[in-house]
Specification:
By secondary structure, this protein is α+β, with helices and mostly antiparallel strands. Helix content is 60%, strand content 9%. A 4-stranded antiparallel sheet has the order 1-2-4-3. The C terminus is likely disordered.
């Protein structure tokens, strides 16, 4: 059974209407008509958020209207569909997805209540998720290094999310030969954190790349965005060259499809051979 993606919107757990239509095996346009028909009833269960997305094509584009439904709204909408084996399976997956999402929230609340220190909160969170102690130490180190790098960037006027995204993409491309988006797709991730799904080895090379980027930035006293981008390129290349050397010597690839999604957690381990 495919795991459904539960999103958070203004603190509320919701599901995209396009995912519901797919699960019910109906046209999304027909589902949107049903939602409009029963809008007043649905709004008794919470506010409805309607969105518009434009999909680019070779010539022009197409506009798609969709909305987000909370748990109660989803339950109401799916009761309007005739039960087939496919629909029953989808209803079950919907119940499980919301239950898992609530457990994640409860877990995070427990972690926050148990610790005042940010890194200690993260440690407890990862422990409760089932990560190994060795992986957790590597992940916490990567968080520390990244925070220090972002501090250096902020001192030099780099503040926007877009700039951070560009610099991160440059570092990642130099390190792994692929962008963060491509890396996430390789691991089968959607909205999940890429770094929370990296292997220890991937984290180690990311740490090296960002440490090197910080060193270049400070040693050169880079101040402009262009200079900082060059430091990110060089930092990524340092790690990338080390990765290629390791792959040549071991015959194994560093970049892995391995992830820590719920269905894989019981068997999560570094593969012995990833040629």
């Amino acid at each position: 059974m495919e795991q459904l993606e539960i999103q958070k919107l203004n603190g509320i757990q919701v599901v995209d209407s396009r995912i519901i239509a797919k699960g019910l095996n109906i046209k999304h346009q027909n589902l949107m008509e049903t939602i409009k028909k029963y809008q007043s009833r649905l709004e008794q269960l919470g506010s409805l958020t309607f969105e518009t997305e434009t999909r680019k094509r070779a010539i022009g584009g197409t506009t798609v209207n969709f909305c987000y439904l909370n748990e109660l709204q989803c339950s109401f909408v799916v009761t309007l569909s005739r039960n087939t084996e496919e629909v029953v399976d989808f209803k079950l997956s919907l119940v499980i997805a919301f239950d898992n999402a609530k457990k994640e929230v409860k877990l995070l609340e427990e972690v926050i209540n148990e610790s005042e220190n940010y890194l200690e909160k993260k440690r407890l969170y990862y422990q409760k998720q089932g990560y190994s102690d060795v992986w957790i130490e590597k992940r916490l180190k990567s968080i520390e290094v990244r925070d220090e790098l972002e501090g250096i960037w902020r001192e030099r006027g780099i503040n926007s999310t877009q700039q951070y995204a560009v610099l991160t993409s440059i570092i990642s491309k130099g390190t792994f030969g692929i962008t963060p988006k491509q890396h996430s797709e390789l691991k089968g991730l959607k909205k999940q954190s890429l770094r929370d799904n990296m292997t220890r080895l991937e984290l180690a090379f990311m740490i090296l790349a960002e440490e090197a980027t910080a060193e270049f930035t400070e040693a050169r006293d880079a101040q402009t965005y262009q200079d900082i981008k060059e430091c990110a390129t060089d930092g990524g290349n340092i790690a990338g060259n080390a990765r290629l050397e390791l792959e040549t010597q071991t015959g194994r690839k560093v970049v892995s499809t391995l992830n820590f999604l719920p269905e894989n957690r019981s068997s999560y381990q570094i593969p012995k051979n990833t040629k």
